[in-house]
Amino acid sequence: MQGAHVMAKTIGIDVGGTNLRIGVFENLNLVEEMRIQADFSTICKNNPPETAWETILTITAESIQSVLAQYPEIAHIGIGFPGFIDPYTHAVAQSPNLPGLHNVNLAYDLASLLQKTVVVENDANAAAFGEYCLAGKPTTGLIYLGLGTGVGGGLILNGQPHVGHHGCAMEVGHITVVPEGRLCGCGNLGCMEQYASASGVSLSYEAATQRKHTAAEIAAFATAGDNSAINAYEIAADALAQALASILKVVDVQHVVIGGGMAGAWNLMDNAFYQRLNHDLIPVLHGKVKVEVSTAQDIAGMLGAAMLEGNY
Q1: b/e string for 242-281 if b means 16 or more Cβ within 10 A?
Q2: pTM assigned to the model
Q3: What is the pLDDT of residues 267-294, one digit of tens each?
């Protein structure tokens, strides 16, 4: 069509603790996806930082090169990486889930190896940007809450991820919801992710039953009528809603998207979530905030990374 803009293909990568997900995108469409098993967490725990970084860099570069062999025309690569990204240098300042990594510049190092443009952003911010693009880029802004092993958050304002002066904006998993509560990996007590994440659900269930199970197993128990399992998910929903109500009092946006692996159990959480959210929201916001479960089928992180070109 004359005058229509066709975006060139881009690569978006979602870096997890145990795998790399690499997507080739054309506009908002996933053309091809590749999953690479890569246990970066174990690599970081078992090696000196310099060795761990070289290994991570090599695995990532080789994985991208295998995709570029099929799509040599791709010039732009976006990466969602778990950790604090310096908003000025775009280096990875620290990654709580990848111990020992400090001030490593993934964007610069990969760009040097691949001779391509590379943009790196925090993984939750990348997922938030992906959800924002899929939602039609709402002018009212968007909050993303990702429920996984922890709870990640992203905020899109004025068409860009809002990362804050130190790159630490929207670390929502560490909002205190239970004073003097469970010890969190960040060092504080009672953080939301200690209750609202998959690991938090496991902790709640274990506290009630003295039995250890995964969040997925507990979801199955809840569906079968196990009251302790039902309660573990209600605790998660309550903590999530409490934190979100606080966020909305500070950042007044209309769209909230809840994603991550645990969002698949939303039917176990929605009643308790809305009850607490409506209780804690200021009255003027009642009925004005649109909360949706992600329909991105877990590609938001890759898509957001791929679409970051031109925003930095």
Answers
A1: bbbbbbbeeeebebbbbbbebbbbbebbeebbeebbeebb
A2: 0.89
A3: 999 999 999 999 999 999 999 999 999 9
